[in-house]
Amino acid sequence: MMMARVIAMVLVVVGAASPAAAQEPHGVVLLYHHASADTPPSTSVTPERFEAHLDYLEAHDYRVWPVDRLLAAVIGGEEAVPANVVAITFDDAYESVYTQARPMLRERGWPFAVFVNTDAIDAGHSPYMSWDQLRDLHAEGVLIGNHSASHAHLIAREEGESREAWKQRVAADLERAGRRIDEAIGVQPDIFAYPYGEDSAELAGLVGDDHAFGLAQRSGAVGPGTDPLSVPRFPMASGFDGMDRFELAVRTRPLPVVEAEPEPPGDGVRGPLRSLRLALEDGTYRAAQLACYSAGGERLQASFEEGPPHRVDIRVDGRGSTGRNKINCTAPASDGSGDYFWYAFQWVQDAVRD
Description:
This protein is α/β, with parallel strands linked by helices. It folds into two domains: 24-252, TIM Barrel; 258-349, Immunoglobulin-like (Sandwich). Helix content is 25%, strand content 23%. Strands 1, 4, 5, 6, 7 and 10 form a six-stranded parallel β-sheet that branches. Strands 11-18-17-14 form a four-stranded mixed β-sheet, with no helix packed on it. The chain has a four-stranded antiparallel β-sheet with strand order 12-13-16-15, with no helix packed on it. A hairpin with a 4-residue loop joins β15 and β16 (310-315). The protein is globular and about 55 Å long.
């Protein structure tokens, strides 16, 4: 996650904008966890700040759609997408969503989704919802999605675990969660949210066996070219939930990245990254102001090859630490709207290594 103030210029010059690209449908998926002042700030927004977010959407005529409708429309092309469409999602099924966020959303008649890690619900752990509360939400039209059974770091193999054993373990975890939601709620989830936002191509292959969409946890908007099993969501949490950042998030458009090549190559957990090469299509963004930053806000050097597709080589040089790491690339829209095009690349470093 990054503040708006780190958006600046990097040395890139890309081809002319395509007028047709301005009409491409897009939407933004927002991610919350707790709506409470008494839970860890890193995964919480206060009820007052959450209400301020909703007030902004209402005051600026945003359309709040169910996340499945937004994804089917934008990625699947199933219906026309108007301007200013967002979806609201919550991971982990915390009780504050039921007691604090739910009344605010019901008052406005707005849909939302809750992604459930089922083992915690079965164990009755606090501060999670109960199955009765989740049934209430489902009866009100709330989408209940799969967030795994264990909420483990599914991307990583356990010590001594073979690749095939890992696949079997993860597949069983996903199936167990889906079965429990079906038993308790009466619906088989079609959308999965990756625990900790940790996704990979191989993990997505397992998710895609039983789910149409997989939701990640990195900044960016959804566009027609978005990978349906690696959908970006803007995380909202204390320190990154101010109104300036919220406005930036909901006004974001998808940067048309058609390929991302990390060096060294690989999938899943990896060692330090040396570089990242992106291939971009033309679009209605100011290419000369494209900027890429580490998650810590450090501006990264880049070189450019004109296309299309245009190729941007970003020097990472081992930056990053154990766990999740991100590179954020942004460029202002060329239509004078003040919007930003955004792309985020994530990798997980130094857990279980090949």
